[in-house]
């Protein structure tokens, strides 16, 4: 029996305000609160809230037969809690249904898997904890930022305790193979993989309202007939896309909500069901291994990481950012750690991409040009690095600094232990003193304590 696996990504970065060279050293707040609030509330109203409601209606209507999965970045969750808490409420209702799975990813939607393995592990751990806290689910499946994947990343993921992952079904990796199966990692065979079906996913995400497309209009009946016509042995159809496709990237007047509502009915008529990533990978065995020596993603036609690493501006910014990572992890300053997290979001580097300048994708950037994005980011990063170095100077190397901080931490713990012992001793002496008092005085002492 064929299964459709719907997976939605939700991510919004903390966008930077205009930060000029002269702000360095004088202004330590980097974020555009007005834009962040405005964009989150607009997208929540157009997409997240009505989409949540629609999915919950479908789940209730089909009573356990319709299922979806989400991966929501930690920085998006923080903005929802601040600017659109009703979105969180809707996602909680979906979680309670038992038919929605929440995946884990990097907390900041970062590129840490490519530059800083320790940071990558920390962010995935923090994100999984946040998901469990908010939605009562301990994630079993991991997806990396923008479905970024390689054999090296597979090894890191498995070492972190995950045996299930989703990524892109890139044509140059699959060759003649179909994405409509469960696979395993070539570098870590115990790691199962689900691959995005780019053709069917992109038909909904990008072509649905394209009047020039030769298949326009796309109806639910037509779409399900395409899936049903795939070879019988191909049992897994993975539809991975951004949640904003529902109502924002494909506006409501295009009929996108009606299309999704109609899909289950036509699917069930054809004997096609819906499953979560965990259900599929728990019940189906891998048909083979996927070898990915070079990093892939779900971005652009190339399905590589050139959207974030394609030019010297991006490479320089990322090198400067992750060059300070070890020092940031040593610090205990909450504001520094929070800024460090927000500055890692992949969007900042996407805005610097020269391959998108002048295309439709450049509409997502708040900057006039990639160079404007680079200059603004580097001004912010320069101030951030100054703040880090003011607390942890370059004159002290990382190992020496780590040893010093460990010593200080141990001394603090020893002081707390001695203070606790001292309180115990004082309390014991008071009790002995009271015992020696006369009955009349003892009553007075006890009365005064009460």
Describe the structure in your own words:
- The chain has about 450 residues and is α/β, with parallel strands linked by helices.
- It folds into 2 domains: about 5-290, Alpha-Beta Barrel (7-stranded beta/alpha barrel), CATH 3.20.110; about 400-450.
- It has helices at about 35-60, 75-85, 85-95, 110-115, 115-135, 150-160, 170-175, 200-205, 220-230, 255-270, 275-285, 305-310, 310-320, 325-330, 335-345, 345-350, 370-390, 400-435, 440-450; strands at about 5-10, 70, 100, 140-145, 165-170, 180-185, 190-195, 235-240, 245, 250, 275, 290.
- The strands form 3 sheets. Strands 1, 2, 3, 8 and 11 form a 5-stranded parallel β-sheet that branches.
- A hairpin with a 6-residue loop joins strand 6 (about 180-185) and strand 7.
- The longest helix is centred in the C-terminal third of the chain and has 39 residues, at about 400-435.
- The mean pLDDT is about 90.
